């Protein structure tokens, strides 16, 4: 059983048993399952996973070192079940530094805000890398920055690949960010929100490579009348 599934079962049992001490729970498990080391180690891993992911936390009001309580997030996981715990595990990886706000919103249960912050972070970064103004937004910005011969396009790749990358960014902003920008939307599926954050994570990795390539290039004198680092949307 994957550790996150086992951890969820341990969390539910702990809540039902009103257990407040993780060591006591493990001692009880040893009585139930014997001293089979693989079983006991798997259960210890489950508790470690629960602590690591903030589903349980040390209870400072109790004197025992292993005293703990189920956190607000932990209670949500118990109520909502495996999909939320799977989504949290999915996001518990080396997310790009630009997605810290999105992950915080996701963990708090505000999936709409998580999606909006994740997609907006991509939009903001494209604007910064391309040298555009704050008034340049949305799909139009993506297409201007990433079109073949655009400031963020890779001249060493085929035009079809350049257009595909442009469409990927434009499609992400157009279908995932713009609806949240224009109206209230309801998203109650944590797995869907996690997938969007993961997609934006990929886009930031691509932008990392674009930024590194641009930094390695010889600085080109900008067109007359255009300040350094600033590009006209019409170009």
Topology:
Layout: H1 3-16, H2 22-33, H3 37-52, E1 56-58, E2 68-70, H4 72-80, H5 82-91, H6 100-108, H7 111-130, H8 138-146, H9 159-182, H10 190-216
Antiparallel strand pairs: 1-2
Helix pairs in contact: 1-3, 2-3, 4-5, 5-10, 6-7, 7-8, 7-9, 7-10, 8-9
How much helix, percentage-wise, in residues? 55-70%
Reading side by side through the largest sheet, how are the strands ordered? 1-2
On the 0 to 100 scale, the average pLDDT is: 87
The proportion of residues in beta strands is: under 5%
Radius of gyration: 24 Å
End-to-end CA span:
55 Å
Counting DSSP H or I runs of 4 or more residues, the number of helices is: 10
Instruction: Tell me about the largest β-sheet.
Output: 2 strands, antiparallel
Topology pattern, helix = H, strand = E: HHHEEHHHHHHH
Please tally the β strands and state the result.
2
Plain-language structure description:
The longest helix is centred in the last third of the chain and has 27 residues, at 190-216. The relative contact order is 0.11. With 235 residues, the protein is an all-alpha fold. The chain has a two-stranded antiparallel sheet. The protein is elongated. It has helices at 3-16, 22-33, 37-52, 72-80, 82-91, 100-108, 111-130, 138-146, 159-182, 190-216; strands at residues 56-58, 68-70.
């Amino acid at each position: 059983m994957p550790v996150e599934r086992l951890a969820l079962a341990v969390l539910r049992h702990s809540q039902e048993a009103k257990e407040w001490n993780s060591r006591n729970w493990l001692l009880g498990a040893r009585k139930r399952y014997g001293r089979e080391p693989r079983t006991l180690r798997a259960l210890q891993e489950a508790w470690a996973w629960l602590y690591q992911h903030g589903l349980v936390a040390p209870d400072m009001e109790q004197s025992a070192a292993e005293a703990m309580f189920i956190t607000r997030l932990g209670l949500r996981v118990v109520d909502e079940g495996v999909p939320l715990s799977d989504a949290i595990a999915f996001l518990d990886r080396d997310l790009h530094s630009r997605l810290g706000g999105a992950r915080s919103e996701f963990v708090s249960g505000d999936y709409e805000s998580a999606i909006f912050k994740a997609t907006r972070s991509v939009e903001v970064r494209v604007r910064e890398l391309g040298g555009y103004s704050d008034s340049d937004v949305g799909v139009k910005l993506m297409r201007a920055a990433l079109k073949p011969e655009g400031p963020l396009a890779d001249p060493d790749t085929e035009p079809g690949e350049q257009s595909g990358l442009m469409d990927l960014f434009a499609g992400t902003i157009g279908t995932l960010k713009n609806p949240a920008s224009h109206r209230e939307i309801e998203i109650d599926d944590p797995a869907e929100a996690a997938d969007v954050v993961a997609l934006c994570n990929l886009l930031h990795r691509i932008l990392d490579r674009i930024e590194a390539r641009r930094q390695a290039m010889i600085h080109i004198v900008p067109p007359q009348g255009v300040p350094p680092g600033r590009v006209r949307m019409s170009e």
